């Protein structure tokens, strides 16, 4: 049931708060134990819901967007999330400061892409290849670099090769992140043309 209402974190905090409320009301406020227990339970349940992590696409109008598009975006992000987590975790396992910085940058771009798709699920198709191919491959490459680096005698040629691939992946990540902005700019250009046409018709300029 914990998975329905958040992760372990909100349950732990809610449990600790309830555990503190019951003795405080009972011993400090002189409240009957059974009443304190009821209040503690209500505090526990309330905090579970209040502290539960925000669900993906929460607050968006599914009817306006389209259930199919929303489900597509949700499935795409859900499938890509583990790779994003692996990519972020691998940065802390890499000794090379420059490479670790590059991997962190990749993880930051991935987070940015996730955030943009959550705001605009209809853009998911634009970054489908990024989420389903480039992101998982980047996680594998970063983990591979960490594994080579961890050897007692690392193969410097292989490390350079992996670094080169990470550099190219960084370019691909930036390209896909910017493509989400380009989509919005295309919409803006259309709106500008329509506004200019209306202004010319209404006020002659």
TrEMBL record:
- Its transmembrane ranges are 9-28, 34-52
Q: Which UniProt keywords apply?
A: Membrane, Transmembrane, Transmembrane helix
Keyword match Transmembrane helix: yes
* Family matches, as Pfam families: Halogen_Hydrol
The protein's name: 5-bromo-4-chloroindolyl phosphate hydrolysis protein
Q: Which organism is it from?
A: Rhizobium lusitanum
